[in-house]
Specification:
Layout: E1 2-13, H1 19-23, E2 26-36, H2 39-44, H3 53-66, H4 72-84, E3 89-98, E4 110-117
Amino acid sequence: MDHILVAGLQELGVHGVLPEERTRAQPFEVDLDLAVDLAAAGASDALDDTVDYGSLSERVRGIVAGESCLLIERLAARIADAALDDPRVAEVTVTVKKLRPPVPVQLDHVAVRITRARA
């Protein structure tokens, strides 16, 4: 299976359990790994034969900025569902990074990575 990778999509969103996370947007980063058969696109050189990652990126951006989840696990699942709306996507791995988590230690980020496949 071939793959389309979308890495480092950054957007502000209101996601989290703590009260301060529910009242202000914070930065998130999303990576997508889409398992797609790219043979037709490779032969035709036509956008209609592949996943439009620009359009999908805008949809993911809208989910991060426009929805509000308590858990980043739920946010990742919503993004996976959006990717699987395209019937050409056989499987997707979504990584959601919370870039400034409210924890009492210094760290780069916390993340959730999920993989979902078409039934």
